[in-house]
Design goal:
This protein has 229 residues and is mostly beta strands. 9% of the residues lie in helices and 33% in strands. The chain has a six-stranded antiparallel barrel with strand order 1-2-7-6-3-8. The longest helix has 12 residues. It starts with 10 loop residues before the first strand and ends with a strand.
Amino acid sequence: MQSSIPMKIIATLHGAFPTKFGIPRQSGLVEDLEATVVFEPEYRNPDALRGLEGFSHLWLIWSFSQAIRPHWSPTVRPPRLGGNTRMGVFATRSPFRPNPIGLSSVRLKGIVQHPTLGPVLHVAGADLMDGTPIFDIKPYLPYTDAHPQASSGFTADYEGYHLTVRFPEDLLKKVPPEKQAALRGVLAQDPRPSYQEDPTRVYGMAFGGLEVKFSVQDGVLTVLSVEKL
């Protein structure tokens, strides 16, 4: 049996997050969060996308490019469990895996033919960092990929979890209108590590060319400042 299989990067995702902090923990949690997928020159042939416009959602198969480690562990500490409880790596979506591969379901908003970049995918709901390498793209098939009655294991208690966001109007005006809903959605998902509960701590998050500072107390996230990076 082969010990390794070659993989090619076919595209790169470009989005609002230059760092890992603040990225939604799963795809589809923030539907207003938009991004683009730009193909590598070798894969810019429009024929490769023929028929893709008929699908509303896609699977992106990608690399945890900022979480590559030389060794792997059979157990990890999921953030949603407070960072102290260990679970088997294959029972989680942790980036620290034998192979640093991620899988995300995104909504396809459209395909735009760029004069120099070729066909560019416009997607929504991605949970990827800007510059993430894409290995493959597959159509989402609702008749086989959706399982509404599936059990959620130890994550069940966190379904629907969100914070109330208090965003002063004068600070909201500093955010481009087309990014306001996405930013609110990201903040409502609670960007903090789950084990941090200090109400006096001020957090900073880079988003779409802005630095957003906030604090959290009693389930309410309050935006404190918004500045350009």
